[in-house]
Amino acid sequence: MPPRRQSAAPGSRRPLAVGVWLLPLPGLIAALVLLGLTSTPVSWRLLGGAALVGATLGLVMLWRERTSYSMRTLASVVAALRDGDFSIRAHAGPGRHAIEALAGEINALADTLREQRLGALEASALLRTAIEELDAAIFTFDDTRRLRLANRAAERLLARPVEQLLGRTADELGLAASLEGEASRVAPMTFPGGIGRFGFRRSQFRQGGRPHQLLVVADLSRALRDEERQAWQRLLRVLGHELNNSLAPIKSVAGTLADLCRQDPPPPDWREDVRDGLALISARAEALSRFMQAYSQLARLPAPRCAPMEVGPWIERVAGLETRVPVLVRPGPPVTLHADRDQLEQLLINLVRNAADAVIEAADQGPPDRDNAIEIQWVRVGREVEVRITDTGPGLANPANLFVPFFTTKPGGSGIGLTLCRQIVEAHEGRLTLENRPDRPGCLACLRLPCPSPPSSEPG
Question: Does 337 score more than 60 pLDDT?
Fold first, then answer.
């Protein structure tokens, strides 16, 4: 409860007291005038003066008492508001007296404060309920690194009730390292209530004028295991499909050749059958070898070696490598990236090659647009550069499987081109999207890469 304020100094009440005692002054003057009249008997003059003075003093005392009572009532209401009690109200009559107007304003202030407090209590209760229901552990530490708030997930993580946690330091709780270093990170940790990989996010706020830290700890082990299991399932499904495509014909041909060897005498064309069977086995083994090499290339992508590179020459150089269909480059603003030149060239080569393959495929269905078969342009969007590659091919038939490793619709394709492109883009902290063109048949590949801020053109 906040301390009560000191009452006003006596000097501040003197004008009111002096004003109260000056009120009977006209009555006293009238009494003196009445006593000075010579035409009236003295007894009547004394009696009238005494009655006039008494009535005046009575009215003054009554007015002073009522005023004092009203002021004390208003002071009590204000004191209750200061103490957080919004149930007390002052009586405000319909008159136009200043005290009644003041009482009405104080009552209105009490109603406003009551509504604000109820709103704050309801919002606080909702926030606390939401925090309690979160699966992530929530911790709040003050400027001395003592725990001030923890939810049920925090209790489960530390395997102790909240009553035993509040007031303890971060060192005692084993969370000191989480309040230092990067504000957001993922690390393997061991807690009394769980072991695995946890995500840590930390932020700061002020309460009561003092700095506090909010720490959110989320167990990522289950989510990571689910993602890992799904990734393995997709990979094994594709690997099984590719292996069956090669091993099934090899097994069939091997069985046929074994039957030929058991025939005595062999058929007259057995040499030709053996030669064709061995050729098929060799071709499927070679295809399986190419598949495994593609897998190795996808699994061993090195980290990018970043250096300054210009966007315009990079795009012009890659566009000149495609000679099967025309490639139109629409120049954009001068932009310098900090990236791995070799990896970005390989990425753009794959995208342009895919676009050219799509245009050539569309040529079988009708005459292609030879003037603008492929267009490449780039624009700057904030702190990123956006490279757009459009083609006049048939478009995307199955967008959901674009980035699935080893999935391909091309005869003899490895199915790792777009997956490799996405890995290169994500290693450069960028994004790659492919979608059908909205204006006509064809595909739009949108590549976004971060780039440094342009130099300021304003005078220093």
Answer: yes
The angle subtended at Cα 406 by Cα 344 and Cα 247, nearest 5°, is: 145
pLDDT mean across residues, the chain: 76
| Count of beta carbons in the 10 Å neighbourhood of residue 445 | 22
Residue 16 has pLDDT above 60, yes or no: no
Token pair belonging to 173: 């709780």
Q: Rounded to an integer, what distance in angstroms lies between the CA atom of residue 27 and that of residue 47? A: 14
Look at residues 402, 403, 373, 378 and name the one whose alpha carbon lies nearest to residue 388.
Answer: 378
* E strand or H helix at 140: strand 137-141
Neighbours of 276 (CB within 10 A): 14
Per residue in 176-189, pLDDT (tens digit) is: 888 888 888 888 88
Distance CA 238, CA 245 (A): 11
User: Helix 14-22 to helix 42-82 angle, to the nearest 10 degrees?
Assistant: 150
| Rounded Cα–Cα distance for residues 351 and 374 (Å) | 11
Q: If you write DSSP's letter for every residue of 290-305 in order, what string do you get?
A: HHHHHHHHHHTPPPP-
Tell which wins on pLDDT, 35 or 157. 157
Quick one: which of 124, 156, 151 has its CA closest to 140?
151
At 354, phi and psi to the nearest 5?
Answer: -60, -40
Beta strand pairing call for 431-436 and 374-381: unpaired
Q: What are the φ and ψ backbone dihedral angles of 189, each rounded to 5 degrees?
A: -140, 160
Distance, CA of 212 to CA of 216 (rounded, Å): 13
Residues 118-159 have pLDDT tens digits of 887 787 787 778 788 788 899 999 989 999 988 888 888 888
C-alpha–C-alpha distance, residues 219 and 255, integer Å: 53
Alpha-carbon distance of 80 to 229, in angstroms, equals: 63
Handedness of CA 276, 281, 287, 290 (dihedral sign): negative
Whole-structure pTM value: 0.45
